[in-house]
């Protein structure tokens, strides 16, 4: 069989065609690979979006619940608790209160947070949801999330006529979800704590709609004294915030409150010139 030999322009043309064919093949492989990677990337993004959406829908968590105090009481014997709230047996709390362990109490920053809870595993459980407010600290948790409910709140989880049966269980499994707080008819309130003086000022913040809790409080003295500047207060304990000023404070005081979600609210001149310790002052503002 004869050998075909290409010379001159014919050989050059064959070489060019061969190179073009190889480049076309490589481009085809690159396009396929790119298409596959793109599809994988889109699939991953779609999975992440679905997972994020699913996580938003799965707002119920698992916890355990106990109860303390009187069977039909508000928990603490003095109707108070480690958050500093007073008269939690009265409106708006109405004894529907709970201690929270650290993930719920959060060193006091969880004070005032509202949760829906329900139980279904115990035969006496109604499966109905009830709303409770964190007003106290649970020092001996029996689970990663532990609600130590008032006797009233614990009994509310039971079927009609079976609240005593449920209380006798002692420890029950519950589901919980964080929900906005609603205090109809109430504005943001400030209780000036016992021991406050002209140089030391401590205030309890309560009745915050929405998040229900407070992560920062600032105080402004009379504009004639402080020049309209906000001074950060420090968390003292629970929902009590304090200011060690080092100078004679000039009322009236305005107070700025920031909630867990970053929303701020300003109560102008809410603490009057003639303020007194152990006195409650109601503002005219509230989270919507």
TrEMBL record:
InterPro entries attached to this UniProt entry: Expan_Lol_pI, Expansin/allergen_DPBB_dom, Expansin_CBD, Expansin_CBD_sf, LolPI, RlpA-like_DPBB, RlpA-like_sf
Subcellular location as annotated: Secreted, Cell wall
Start and end residues of each Expansin-like CBD domain: 199-283
A single BP term in Gene Ontology: cell wall organization
Domain Expansin-like EG45: 80-186
Keyword entries, A-Z: Cell wall, Cell wall biogenesis/degradation, Glycoprotein, Secreted, Signal
Annotated SUPFAM superfamilies: Barwin-like endoglucanases (SSF50685), PHL pollen allergen (SSF49590)
Signal peptide location: 1-39
Cellular component annotations (GO), alphabetically ordered: extracellular region
Family membership: Belongs to the expansin family. Expansin B subfamily.
PANTHER family, sorted: EXPANSIN-B3, EXPANSIN-B8
Protein's recorded name: Uncharacterized protein
